[in-house]
Amino acid sequence: MSSEPLFKHLALIGVGLIGSSIAHAARERNLVGHISCTARSEATRQTALDLGIVDSAHASAGDAVTGADLVILCAPVGAYGAIAADISAHLSPGAILSDVGSVKQAVVRDVGPLVPEGVHFIPGHPVAGTEQSGPEAGFAELFDGRWCILTPPPGANQDAVDRLSGFWAKLGSMVEIMDPRHHDQVLAITSHIPHLIAYNIVSTVDDLEKVTEAEVIKYSAGGFRDFTRIAASDPVMWRDVFLNNREAVLEMLGRFSEDLAALQRAIRWGEGDKLEETFTRTRRIRREIIDAGQDLSDPDFGRWSSHPEEEEGE
Amino acid sequence: MSSEPLFKHLALIGVGLIGSSIAHAARERNLVGHISCTARSEATRQTALDLGIVDSAHASAGDAVTGADLVILCAPVGAYGAIAADISAHLSPGAILSDVGSVKQAVVRDVGPLVPEGVHFIPGHPVAGTEQSGPEAGFAELFDGRWCILTPPPGANQDAVDRLSGFWAKLGSMVEIMDPRHHDQVLAITSHIPHLIAYNIVSTVDDLEKVTEAEVIKYSAGGFRDFTRIAASDPVMWRDVFLNNREAVLEMLGRFSEDLAALQRAIRWGEGDKLEETFTRTRRIRREIIDAGQDLSDPDFGRWSSHPEEEEGE
């Protein structure tokens, strides 16, 4: 614990689930000296101070970043342009400016032009999260064993990329370098479309006449329940994801809908072989995700809340 | 444990996840005397005997049900017609014939006409399960706190309905009586459509050119992972569900697709307010499911397999 911290001063712009988890982990693992933060609401700033995860909390983003050698934007991506304009003049030469947004081309577009000469702009995206929001939702282990994607622009300072990679590795992540356009395509299918269809089916049940909402809730253990979890994710964050990754989301959604129409047709015409073949193929991908350490093999679909102590013993 | 069992002889036609869980729970809670079973494969019958969850295993379904006062069909619903033909002449007068199928109108259609006079036919559906299959996947607590829907035909013997309800209550379930047609509509949206879209998105990633399967697996913690779990469910069981609940599934799928098209349009035209409003509405339903004891509130989306012992301590 007595080793030199990787950065002298970390500034977090936003301390929701991701920002507060970075603060928890960075503090616990002694990765930074001072941690400052800003948040739009006074209550959030106070909570961050009360939790003891930041040393200072500022109403002004410019004040928060002053003197920082690592600045990480942890706000909804729709706010990045305004934030970049606010902090631009306050960034220190040699500082690294990064973020945790779920889209990357839009970040390059909105923030890139406002980064002053001598500041190293290296967008990032830790592929980790829970369905919960706010500074109290964070925990130090969130990034353990999860991938963090960095999208340094062409010609980025290699030393800065290495330092930021090292920071994420110490937060527990495996780090991958990727082109922002490719990032947005990969995440469209692995994250954005799953969220969209989960939001959509939960929204659909809200409007049915033949089945009541009380019935849906009672029998949700049949499968629906699993979708409500990710459909409880932060609405503003996800609004901004869809508005800022439109092209890739619409392209992948087109594929999803086309394939769904084919299954619909197979059901209508009673093509059992086609259904069984599709449902068999999908099992293999599940096994590969478990083998890759990205999920547990324990059966979870039937977990029962009335006996959590028994479940935990398994 | 010395109280009189509810049934002298339980016969299970099929001992997969659900059948073996019934056997585990019925035995552990002393609900039945003898448990017999049949299964199509010799290996499955032997596994059921080796697990000690059945007293006898028979190659012939007719032999398995001989002398039973409770018979439960636990096979894929597409096999019910043939099974009913096989067992019809062997059912004892006064016996209850039930099942655990995820659709109910098709069961009434396929099995009903083959039930002999004096046998009480009361279809059932425990809304519980995991993504795992086979006799080894069963466990006694699967039904605890979950709903079991019974769909007795008009004029069903009330004493028989009460005895079957009592059996499911002792297995841990809350019991609801429902019309088969309404059952199929409720389950279409709470279970069948969720499974269909999960199978579909997992299948879609299999066919993409721009994103590799290795990338999807690596970054699956972004949301995709959650869908792979229910898309790993038994392919034959689910084939039969869709073939046998066609009308309700196609109707609910129509609603889902219509709503998805509206979200797609909102993304295309940058209607952030509409997106945010939809995503906010869906949070409430999640809270109600947790309040109803049908899921845990612990954040799960970010669960990390490399440190299960830490997670369990939360």
Q: What structural class should be given to the helix and strand makeup of chain A?
A: alpha/beta
Oligomer: homodimer
Gap between N and C termini of chain A: 35 Å
Task: Count helical runs of chain A.
Answer: 13
CATH class of the largest domain in chain A: Alpha Beta
The largest sheet of chain A has its strands arranged as 3-2-1-4-5-6
- Tally of separate domains of chain A: 2
β-strand number of chain A: 9
Radius of gyration of chain A: 22 Å
- Coarse morphology of chain A: elongated
Could you please say which CATH topology of the largest domain in chain A applies here? Rossmann fold
Sheet with the most strands of chain A? 6 strands, parallel
Q: What share of the residues of chain A does DSSP label as strand, in percent?
A: 5-15%
CATH homologous superfamily placement of the largest domain in chain A: NAD(P)-binding Rossmann-like Domain
List the secondary-structure elements of chain A in sequence, H or E.
EHEHEHEHEHEEEHEHHHHHHH
Biggest interface: A-B, 117 and 117 residues
What's the architecture of the largest domain in chain A, going by CATH? 3-Layer(aba) Sandwich
Binned, the helix content of chain A reads: 40-55%
**Rounded mean pLDDT score of chain A:** 91
Low-pLDDT segments, ≥5 res of chain A: 300-314
